[in-house]
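Forgive a beginner's question, but might I ask you for the amino acids of a protein and the tokens describing how it folds?
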Amino acid sequence: MNKYRLKSKIRNVGIAYLLLFFAGAQYAYLNKWGTQIFFWITFGGLGIWWLIDIFRIPAMVQDFNDPIFDEIEYIESMEQNRYREREQDRYRDRDDFKELRRMRAERSGNLLDEEWQKW
């Protein structure tokens, strides 16, 4: 999956608190619809569940975001590996090109052995 698409799925603690205080929809924000419906039916556990959630929201948001961050980290490490491989290939190609130029110069007689050692 695209890392920018994953970044758009990251949840914010502040928004979760706003949803808790104004709509009681913090579980819906974290894609826990079964728990959200139960929260609404019980009126937030008659307020007790609501009070407990005030302290639980940061951990719930972190638990939701952790797999997303892990996936983003994996994608970025793969991109860095591909970049390193391309850089190594680029330098490898330069060395091959240098060898090819030396062979052409020797074949044409434009390069003596002493000149190649200096080069």
Remarks:
- Residues 48-108 form the longest helix (61 residues).
- The chain has seven helices and no strands.
- Residues 3-118 form one domain.
